[in-house]
Amino acid sequence: MHLFDLSSDCDPVRRHNPRYLHRCHPPPTKNSILPPRPQHELQRRTRRPHRRRHRRKFDSACEIIRWMVRSGCDPDVVTYSTLIAGLCRAGMVEEAWGVLDQMLQGNCSPNAHSFSPFLQAYCSQGKIEAAIRLMESMRSIGCPPDSVAYNILINGFCKHGYFNEAAHLLENCVSDGWEPDAVTYNTYISGLCKVGRAEDAFKQLEMMLQKKLCPTVVTLNIVLDSICRESTVWEGNHHLERSLELGLEVDVVSYNTIITRLCDIGKLSWVLKLVTDMIKKGISPSTETFNIMIRSLCKAGKFRKAKCIFTSRGFVADTITCNILIHEFYMAGKIVELHNLLSGVDMDKIRPDSITYNSIIDCLCKKGKFLEAINYLRSVEDGFPSEAVAHLAYGLVRGRKIGELLNLFEEMLSQGLVLDGQAFSHLIIAFCRNGSCQSREIYKVCLVLDKMLGIV
């Protein structure tokens, strides 16, 4: 049975209209992309509710097309395809098929670009088999898919885990009459890396280079990161050097990927060497590069070297840098050194964020300086940020400072502030870790929760 033959009494227009292809399952052939699957009766599509603004825009666009027809200026394939693309992006696929009907009735033949939005919509919704049937239908009506259509399908395969089908599609590209381009390989390689198949990804990268196609720097960085995670940092460094030898575009993110992994395994001497090599090749280290190094040096107890990097000429610290220093220096008890270090920073250009508040409160609580933590929270310009309150509540409960916690909540409630779910969650976790929920101290839990709810 022909792909579009729904019944013997269908009229010719319906039988050769691509919008009906998704209502039938063609019999599987030996060249099918997907293996044979159970045939299921497809239910009739139901209209989904759409927002009024989308409906208004759709009506306006259709009115413009009707005006063009009345004016003797028949819309061309670009006009119809643009409307189809907009509808599909808005999730109005049913209406998009209606535009295709109107297009065919106006004797305007669709091209590959007309069908690409439908492919994108199907793949986004996980309807991979429907997308494949649409591709097959395009060939049967003399409108073969182009590289854009194949790239959409490859992306859909990768997004939903059809990697064998993606490999099969690439292997049969010549017989199918299309040539994979750089976008095809970049998409496939990124998909492989996201599921941890670094070796397969690098094989595809080599095949890509054999075809004189250039991977994007983003794809190369994804491959490097995946290799470092799945194998060893030394292999990642080897592939970085090989990429440079092949003349591929490498940026500071590529180096930061390797530097991060080297820091994770404590190879700080290799980090300094790699940074030196990077500078020699004309790639300037970013603030992120220095932040990675500062964090690693602090964790290794090399605070003096971390301070040297922080105070080096040309380095511009950001909020992340300050957060790293606050956490590491506080935990090491180097409070005076930290204040001296940050005194030279232009704080007007660096705004503290939630991580800054949380780090200071966590460190003070871990050091048993609960009163300082409470006073710090009071001094915050944002006025009791909810996340910081939750961290302080956790620290006070863990430190068994229930009285101070109740006073804090009473102060906040008197100012008309409302405690949110974060505070409740952190409190319950802290009480459970203290063992209060399974002991005679359960009354303390109830007392605090009552105070938070304003019952007492």
Automatic annotation (TrEMBL):
Residues 45-55 have a biased composition (Basic residues). This is PPR repeat. Residues 25-55 are annotated as: Disordered. Keywords: Repeat. Belongs to the PPR family. P subfamily. PPR repeats lie at residues 76-110, 111-145, 146-180, 181-215, 251-285, 353-383. The keyword Repeat applies. The keyword rRNA processing does not apply. Pfam families: PPR, PPR_1, PPR_2. PROSITE patterns: PPR. It comes from the Eukaryota.
